[in-house]
Each structure stands twice: as structure tokens, then as C-alpha cells.
Amino acid sequence: MANDDAPAAELPEIIVTAQKTAQSIERVPLSVGTVDGELFQQSGATGFADLQGYVGNVTIALSPTGGDFFVRGFGTLSTNAGFEPSVGTVVDGVFYGRSNFLSVFFNDVSRMEVLRGPQGTLFGKNSTAGVFNLVTRAPDSGNGGVGEAFVSDSGEYAVRPVLNMVFDEHWSARLSGNFSRDDQGELFNTDLDRDEVNVAQDTLRLRVRYDSDKIRTDIGAFYSDQRLNANNFQLIKVSDPMLQLMRQYDADAEGRLDFRNSANVPARGATRFAGANATVDYPLDGLRGIDKLDFTAISAYARQVIEDRDIDADFSPVPFIRDTLIDPSPFRQLSQEFRFTGHDDNVLGFGHSIDFVIGGYWYESTLNANDVFRVEDLGAALSYVTAAQSGAPNANAGLQLLGMPLTRLAFPVGRLVDLLNPVLNPLLGGDQAAYVTLDQKTSTQAIFGQMEYFILDDWALIAGARVGREHKQGHFTSTAEGFLIPLIADQNDHDTRLSRTETEFSPKLGLKWQLLPNANTYLTWTRGYKSGGFNALPLNDRNLEFDPERATSLELGAKARLLQGSLRLSAALFDTRFDNLQVSTFATDSGAAAPVFLNAASARSRGGELEVHWMLPLRGLAFYGSAGYADAYYRRYPDAPAPATSEDSTQDLGDRTLSNAPRWTAAAIPSFTLPLPRDLLATLAIETLYRSQRYVDVDLDPVTLQKATTELNGRLVFGTRAGGWTLSLAARNLTREVIVDQVLDQPLAAGNYVASRADRGRRLSANLIVEF
Predict the structure, then answer these.
(1) SS3 string of 66-87?
(2) Where is the TonB-dependent receptor-like beta-barrel domain (predicted)?
(3) CA angle, residues 257, 263, 266, in degrees to nearest 5
């Protein structure tokens, strides 16, 4: 987004594939936010979450084991392995059924596109909120390579090599790697004396291209090994009895938001990703008199295997309950797409030109989710429950047993049970655990088509539709040993098989006024569909499945490149309504240890986006700005979960805001490029990124309200005009904003809260890129 070349007076053309064909962004009749690959390298970003502030009405959180994406206030939390996202993930034309595949593709990127609003017509199911479309760099025309080295003062460093090879006039290849480490992590665990959330990644990606006059074939493959210490929650509010108990196990335990936590489970997260895809483009110009016609086939296979995933389910140093995998958890997908895209200047002798795409899609996936919830220590469990009850907001602080305050009995009661273990174990059972599994198979088929038909010279009719069918099968089991898990988590043994079949219809209608080649105004009506599914942690046989959600949106927008190409403007207004909105929650009748997806009644989001990119008349000065407004709220949600401290189990959230939905997002980034001796350039950019307050849990408990934040970032970039080398020095979060992306109730301990911190305080970094 910075102006890297002072002599340039015109903004470069941005080509996007938002409509499954390469187009100038000014011709695309939908709201699209873009980030180019250079900003990935220059901003000091270490993941996609660091880029969310540059694009209005977008929220991103991503890890090796899950991804959370929200657009215009709508999205789906990855709290359940059975989830399917509301924002589709597409990389180089391939749809991925799990958002965390995106973590494989952070390096060697050409551009990132966020397509806002329902995108069901062209991109299919699970795109009710939008699509995250990533385009990686393809092999170029010369032999050479790129060496990239990144380091930050917060312990992160990475080496990202790229090798480009040209074999002959037709064959070329590009091999890229991302080898990153984090020696400090986001948190320090005082109980285990180790760093937490310290992601390490080893990734290799290969693209091989065959290019001739008649056919282009692009073959890709990737492998990624990602791992981390996975205790990412910290207690931020703790009752006195609970804090006293915690300090019996860790004297440094605390209940405040900082960069420390305390958890006794040595939780690990480890995921392996692999995949391959082939894209074939074949021109058929002139077939049946069509001026330009291309055939495209995309075949893809991908898998992720979560090999380790542990959760300290009580988020404390008390050895109470843990959730871990029974066996590695695999997800696999196989897909095939065929489509024709074309342009013709004369349609049956009536009207003017037509642009169209028509095709078919097939997708299959399998998932095996398996968990064991285990009580680690029976005495500690009883101590925990005693401390939780005596410290609950509605508890009697003076409650006594044999003249002793209950708050002081928690730890001794637990120790007494430990001493009596040899006697109690034969009676109660030695292993207090519940084993839960879900085996799921999904099959989807669809046909789709869309056209822009210029009925007049500058007026086009937009029409499209997608019809699809999906079939899911699920096999659930839940088996308990001992008495405690059924007692505290409402578990019951079951072995259940379910299947569901759904039909998708996602139409699109609109008008487009292409006043100039680089300016258009449009009005569209679209519908999107997100499939129903199964909950992956079925402690009992209730709430095993949830229904599909549907979105309907009206959007009015305009785009233009003005002032001899030095100014780019984009604006959109929208009104989106969701029916049967899927929400992630801890349902009181589904087991307190397991989040499930349920359907809210209905929701609505109204607002708009504005983006400005201007090369100002002062030589070397540029400005990028974006703003998003989204008033996202429940129209009706009478049985929403109540805060854990409430005496009621449900509440009415009608007319209340959605969680994870800031009303305002904005970015203002002025930059100045100065020519230096020896044909060098220096660019200074100052970034102000604003995000208004938002709740970060579905129950809208006041404790879960994240205040508004204003991040101030800066970067200084040195390099040669020819691009031989670039050195980027970046400073992020100079204002030291404290940001959390999730706050939850501590399980079975009303009035205690845990949070996942999203910021790392102030962070300084350097990134050196050398081309050879």
C-alpha cells in the first residue's frame, strides 16, 4: 500500500479473480478489499491476523488448529471440529473446508482478496458472510531466487527462501519455504515454567507450470508441519476462594490480563497439512461463434491431521479436568471443478457484449474427531468444585462446615480425598473420564452460472444462480468411566448414527452501470447458504446436529479510478439478513465442557465500506484509507445463553449486538517515498488502525466487552529501484493496546473468566529480502 516508486504518478492496476476470471477491480460489481503481497513482507506482520486492520469490516484469528473469520459482523468460531466456516477459504482457485489451511500460505503471496457479503453463486456453500480469496505467486520467466529473513524483538524469526526455475520455453517451477520459530511465545506459563502459543512452522510449497499457446497447466503441492505449546487462555477474573486454591498448586497464579498464565496441563498443538492440485486452462475461442471462451478444470486433494491437541479444560494450575485427543484427528477433502468463462460482443443480434461463467463442482470430505475428557485428580476436582461454589457470585460468603468457612476447606477436602484414594478407587472407579467421537462424511455436488449482459452500451444485467445438493453422515459415540464426568457435565452413554440431505439455491440479480472503463456503479441482490451439520463433541445425545443458515443481502456500490489514474475510490452500502444463524455456545443441556453449534433465530447487519488510495500531487506522497461500518445485531434470539453468573439459563438477545462484531473499523496510512543516492529509495509509512468496542463471547456478558482500540504502527523501507534488495523496519502497536479475541467463563466456576490475548504489546521487527 505504500508508494514504492517515487517517479510513478499512476496507481498500478489491480487484477482480481473475485468472479472466477481475471478482471480489473474497477469492473467488479461487488465489495472487495485487497492487500498486496509486498505489504505482507513490509508491515512486520507474522500472520493473517496482523493484516485484518487494513481491510474494513474484517476480523481474523488463525492458528494451526483453527481459524475464525468475520465479515460485516458475521462469522463462525472454530470451537468445534464439526464446524464449517461462514467465510469461505479459497487459495489459487481451490476451496478448503477448514480455515486453518490458510496458515500454510502466508509467504510468497501475490495478493489477498476479501469478497464481502454472500458469495454463494460462484463460490458455493459456506460463504454466507464472504470469501477469503488468496492468490500465491506463480513461476515467473527467469531463473533466480529470493532470500527472506525476518526477526522481531518478541522472539520471532523466520527464513523464507524462494527458488524460481525455468526449464525451457514451456516449463517453469517455483519452490518456496517458510521456516519460522517463536522463542518467546505470547504468554509465559508460571506453573509449567514455559512459553505458550509459540508457533513453529516448517512449510514447503511447489508450483510447476506448463504454458503454451494452446494450454496452461498449473500444478501445486504443499506440506506443512506446525506446532505450539497450546495453553492460550489466562484467568482474568478470579474469586478469592479459587485464587487461594490455585496458589496451593502455583504460588505465582494470578487473575489479571497480562502476558502470564498458569495451567498444569502441558498442552501441545501439532498439525500436519498436505495437499496437491492441478489447474488446466484451455482456450476455445471461436467455438460456436463465441469471441473468447476458456475452459478451466481444477482438481484438488488436501488433508490436515491434528496429531496433538490438549486443552487444560479448567484453565488453571488445579489438576481438575483435561481434554485431549484419543488418536490423531484427520480431515481430508477431494474436489473437482469444471467451468467455462467467456466474452462475446454480439448476443443473438440483440444488446451488446456478455461476460459469463458456467460450471459444475463436486466435493467430498471426511472427518474423524475424537476426544477424552479426563478428571486428572479426584481430590483436586472436589477442591475445585468446593472453591467454585463458595466463590460464586450468589454464594453465601459465610457458609461454614463444622464452624470452618467453606472457602478455607476446599484444599483440605481435596487432600483428604487423595489420602482416601486407596479405599475410594475400588468404589468409585479409578478412571474418571468420558470418550467421545464423531466420524463424518460429506458429499456435495453443484452447478452454477453467472452473467453480465450489457443490454445497452453501458448498462449490464447481472444474473446468476447455483443449485447444489449435500449429503452428510455422522456416527457419534460417548462412553464414560467413573461417576464424575456424567455428574458435572451431563454426559450420558450413546452410540448414534444420523444423516442429513440438504438442497442449496443461491441466486444473484443486479444491475451495473459501466460509465467509464475504470468506473462502475452497481446494485445487487444475493443469497448465500451455509450447510447444517453435526457437533463434534457429543457428550450426550442432545443437540447433535444443527440446521443450515441462509443470508440475503442487498448491496449498492461504486468504484472508480480517477485523476489520470492517481486516485482509486471504492464505496459500498449493504443490508444483510441471516435466518437460522449458527452460533457457538456452551449449551447447558449438552455438557458444560463442550461447545456446540445451535441456530439463533435471525440477525441483520447494515452498513458500508469506503476505500481510498491516492497518489497525491506532491511527488512521493501517497495515502491509503479504509473505513467499515456494520451495525450487526440479532433481530430475534429469545433463547440465547445467559451469563454464567445469571440465575437464568437463557436470555433474550433480540435487538442486541452480535459478538465479534465491531461497529467501526478504519485505517489511515500516509506514506512518503524519497529518492536516495545510488538509485535507492526510502519509504516511510505511518499506520493508524482503529476498531470500536465489541463483545467477544456470545452471551454478551459485560466482562467480555473489548474496549475500542487504536493501534499505531510505522515502517521504514529501504531498497533499490530495480528491486535487488529491500530492508523493512517495522514497529507495531506503538500505543501498546491490550486486545483479547475471546473471553469465556471458567467451566463450572461461575464468576471466573478466562481470556485469549491477541496482541503482543509493542513489537519491533526487521525483514531483509534479497533477490538473486
Answers:
(1) EEEEEECCEEECCCCCCCCCCE
(2) 275-734
(3) 135
- To the question of pTM greater than 0.85 for the whole model, the response is yes
* Any domain includes 675: yes
C-alpha cell, 578? 441471516
Which three-class secondary structure state does DSSP give residue 385? helix
Question: Which pLDDT does position 60 carry in this prediction?
Answer: 87
How many Å apart are CA 100 and CA 81, to the nearest integer? Answer: 12
Q: Considering the domain boundaries, does residue 426 fall inside one?
A: no
Average pLDDT value for residue range 393-422 = 53
The pLDDT of residue 458 is above 80: yes
Q: What is the tally of structural domains in the chain?
A: 1
In a domain, 487, yes or no: yes
Look up residue 386 and give its amino acid. Answer: T
For helices 240-249 and 378-391, angle between their N-to-C axes, nearest 10 degrees: 150
How many Cα atoms within 13 Å fall on the side-chain side of residue 585? 25
What single string gives the DSSP state of each residue in 4-64? Answer: --TT--SPPP-EE-TTSS-EEGGG--S-EEEEEHHHHHHS---SGGGGGGGSTTEEEEEET
Condensed to tens digits (0 to 9), the pLDDT of residues 461-516 reads 999 999 999 999 999 999 998 888 888 778 899 999 999 999 999 999 999 999 88
DSSP secondary structure, 568-605, as one string: EEEEEEEEEEEES-EEEE--TTS-TT--EEEE-SEEEE
Measured CA to CA, the distance from residue 746 to residue 768 in angstroms comes to 43
Question: In which domain, by residue range, is 532 found?
Answer: 15-199+215-260+272-379+431-771
Residue 456 belongs to some domain of the structure = yes
Nearest to 212 by CA among 276, 143, 281, 279: 281
Neighbours of 169 (CB within 10 A): 9
685: number of CA atoms within 13 Å, CB side? 28
Q: Cell numbers of 274, please?
A: 498436505
Residue bearing cell 527462501: 161
Task: Output the domain CATH number for residue 146.
Answer: 2.40.170.20
Place of cell 538473486: 772
CA dihedral 138, 144, 147, 148 (to 10 degrees): -30
Percentage of the chain with pLDDT > 90? 68
Secondary structure class of 384 (helix, strand, coil): helix
Q: Which of 497, 600, 627 is nearest to 546 (CA)?
A: 600
